[in-house]
Specification:
The complex is a heterodimer of chains A (409) and B (155). Chain A is 37% helix and 17% strand. With 409 residues, chain A is of the alpha/beta class. Chain A folds into 2 domains: 5-30 and 296-405, Aspartate Aminotransferase, domain 1, CATH 3.90.1150; 39-293, Aspartate Aminotransferase, domain 2, CATH 3.40.640.10. Chain A starts with 16 loop residues before the first strand and ends with a helix. Chain A is globular, with a radius of gyration of 22 Å. In chain A, helix 2 crosses helix 10 (279-295). In chain A, strand 8 (195-199), helix 8 and strand 9 (218-222) form a beta-alpha-beta unit. Chain B has one domain (3-150): Alpha-Beta Complex (Sufe protein. Chain: A). In chain B, helix 1 packs across helix 2 and helix 2 (64-77) packs parallel to helix 4. Chain B is globular. Chain B is α+β, with helices and mostly antiparallel strands and 155 residues long. In chain B, a hairpin with a 4-residue loop joins strand 1 (29-35) and strand 2. Classes of the chains: A alpha/beta (409), B alpha+beta (155). At the A-B interface, helix 12 of A face helix 2 of B.
């Protein structure tokens, strides 16, 4: 077993007591906690060299710009981008997906075209495409899920016809933890001539990411789920896509020249970064990348698998627990959704909270998926680098308490 | 604060055996309510005889608080006049108003059950503010149904 016990010390919030119990934080898939190493870097930026970027001809602005662009370089290296200009800073994965849906879709989709999504998508990878479909007349097609909570890729050859212009899918489900075979799906979609996108908002903090190996056209992610601050995330785009895509927002910073009758755009990636960007958030994201790289994403993956395996084993001790997700640890990450008898997930979450345990209850912004599971909501636990077997043990004890209160056998 | 203050036996009983479940043919008043954040759903049918609610039928799914509140509400309003129901709604809302003191909320600690019957078991929800909207769902749905019913009667 990988020793991750030292990692906990880096996360100040984990020292908190909740209702008189030590905090057991099992909702990192919604948003992760932040290590001191990220907080300190952001604090130092504000205290010692903060200024707007790409503008001032003075030292502070130069230092801020360097730190901001260095952060872009760190992110680019982290996902193995070909160059840092392939990384656009955005508010998060949601903005990144909207950028492509509108910036590319409005010019490339029309009535008769189809957009392929999957039954496993977060609303962030559904609703932007619905909005664009409504405006362009394109249709939506959903790749279904099979009985083992995997994407049913056997259906792909059937569904992938020449009318499919874009395929956008998740690299890891935020509900079932499923990790679909990204490169395989991307290859099949590309062979059909579709633009291919991957939402890695979850995957990026659970496994190493290599956008070149994915062979996709765009990849979207958020900083706050990977130990970084809120308000920052990114879009990786194949250079040719970023060149042809229209900017999603107009404003300062993204222009080359502005005339009264029209403007020309700044070079990629700046043409997509209108206005003053979240400078310190980007720098904080760079620090989060440093932190994860120091642990090593292969170790992060092993730790997640080990903990997920342990949790699935311990959950199986409770006959009333029904897990919605693949059993195969190589095809899933550290997110586990389940039901506990007929007890509603919100009741489970309230009782666990009294024990100091934070879990998510609900549809997890993936209503089509929870509907497909045949339940209105699930309880979800999710792991990060700071979680341990003790957290899992606390969860099991907490669930026994729920069974006691609700008299579940 | 113990969890048993929230999950009292009465609540668990109504959750397990909800009263007045189902739907009515051609109801005089109907409304649907949901809490989009948690996915609690409720459908409420009322039969009116003059200004008296003679039948109540509820369908829905959700947490024990939302479902037991609906079940207890159905008992509390069945057979009552619209005016009496307005008074129950006001008392219940006051009970759920965490800004208000328990006495202002019309609760009488010496006579539990005097005002709201089983519904007083939901007092514990006051200590769990995030769950208040679960308890309120049935009641906002009821208000909506009464508005729709009124329109129907008048038209």
């Amino acid at each position: 077993m990988t020793d991750f016990s030292h990692v906990r010390q880096d996360f100040p919030v984990l020292k908190r007591q909740i209702h008189g119990r030590p905090l057991v934080f099992l909702d990192s898939a919604a948003s992760s906690q932040k290590p001191t190493q990220v907080l300190d870097v952001m604090d130092a930026a504000y205290r010692t060299y903060y200024a707007n970027v790409h503008r001032g001809a003075y030292l502070l602005s130069e230092e801020s710009t360097t730190a901001y662009e260095d952060a872009r370089g760190k992110v680019a290296r982290f996902i193995n981008a070909g160059s840092r200009s392939e990384v656009v800073f955005t508010r998060g994965a949601t903005t990144a997906l909207n950028m492509v849906a509108f910036g590319w879709g409005m010019d490339h989709l029309s009535a008769g075209d189809k957009i392929m999504l999957t039954m496993m998508e977060h609303h962030a990878n559904v609703v932007p495409w619905q909005l664009v479909a409504r405006r362009t007349g394109a249709e939506l097609v959903y790749l279904p899920m099979d009985a083992d909570y995997q994407l049913d890729i056997n259906r792909l050859p059937d569904l992938l016809d020449e009318r499919i212009k874009v395929v956008s899918f998740t690299g890891m489900s935020n509900v079932t933890g499923t990790m679909p075979p990204v490169a395989e799906i991307a290859r099949m979609a590309r062979d059909q001539g579709a633009l291919v996108g991957v939402d890695v908002a979850q995957l990026i903090t659970h496994a190493p990411i290599d956008v070149q190996q994915f062979q996709a056209d765009f990849v979207a992610f958020s900083g706050h789920k990977m130990l970084g601050p809120t308000g920052i995330g990114g879009l990786w785009g194949r250079p040719s896509l970023l060149e042809e895509m229209e900017p999603f927002e107009g404003g300062g910073e993204m222009i080359s020249d502005v005339q009264l009758e029209g403007s020309t755009w700044a070079p990629v990636p700046h043409k997509f970064e209108a206005g003053t960007p979240p400078i310190v958030e980007a720098i904080g994201l760079g620090a989060a990348v440093d932190y994860l790289e120091k642990i090593g994403m292969d170790s992060v993956r092993r730790h997640g698998q080990e903990l997920t395996g342990y949790a699935l084993n311990r959950l199986s001790e409770l006959p009333a627990v029904r897990v919605f997700g693949p059993a195969d640890l190589t095809a899933r990450g550290g997110v586990i959704s389940f039901a506990l008898g007929n007890v509603h997930p919100h009741d489970v979450a309230t009782i666990l909270d009294q024990e100091g345990i934070a879990v998510r209850a609900g549809h997890h912004c993936a209503k089509p998926l929870t509907r497909a599971l045949g339940v209105p909501a699930t309880v979800r636990v999710s792991f990060q680098v700071y979680n341990t077997r003790d957290d899992v043990d606390a969860l099991i004890a907490g669930l026994r308490r729920v069974q006691e209160v609700f008299r579940v056998d | 604060m113990s969890i048993e203050e929230l999950y009292r036996d009465v609540i668990l009983d109504h959750n397990r055996n909800p009263r007045n479940r189902g739907t009515l043919d051609h109801p005089d008043a109907h409304a649907e309510g949901n809490n989009p954040l948690c996915g609690d759903e409720l459908s409420l049918d009322l039969r009116l005889d003059g200004d008296r609610v003679t039948e109540v039928a509820i369908q829905g799914q959700g947490c024990s608080i939302s479902q037991s509140s609906a079940s207890m509400m159905s008992q509390a309003i069945k057979g009552k006049t619209l005016e009496e129901i307005e008074a129950v709604i006001a008392t219940f809302k006051a009970m759920m108003d965490i800004q208000a003191s328990p006495s202002r909320a019309g609760l009488d600690p010496d006579r539990p059950g005097a005002v709201l019957g089983d519904l007083e078991a939901l007092q514990g929800v006051r200590k769990f503010p995030v769950r208040i909207k679960c308890a309120n769902l049935a009641w906002t749905t009821l208000e909506e149904a009464l508005r729709s019913g009124k329109g129907k009667v008048e038209s």
